[in-house]
Design brief:
Layout: H1 2-18, H2 26-36, H3 58-63, H4 69-76, H5 90-104
Helix pairs in contact: 2-5, 4-5
Length: 105
Amino acid sequence: MRRLAVLIVLATVAMPALAQTEPGDAAAGLRLAATWCANCHRVAPGGPGPSTDAAPTFRAIAQMPSTTSISLRVFLQTPHPNMPDYRLTREELDDVVAYLVSLKR
């Protein structure tokens, strides 16, 4: 019984360390998106956007069933013909992904 109690205490203490949280700062991601992406995308719900709807809004991207932090990371690191080839640092990538994922909730 005592061993079980010790295991429960250890598991309780270790769980936060084992839980993986999404890296990135969503507010910083919004600022980056407003600077780099707003020429083609509406980056914030109700916010200013481009003069055409050729590119989906960030909210629409976030709501796609296929949108996950992993799929966003792959997409943003792969050159696409209709998108500028931004060279995001790891921190910038984390921030933009955190912002997009925040729109999914």
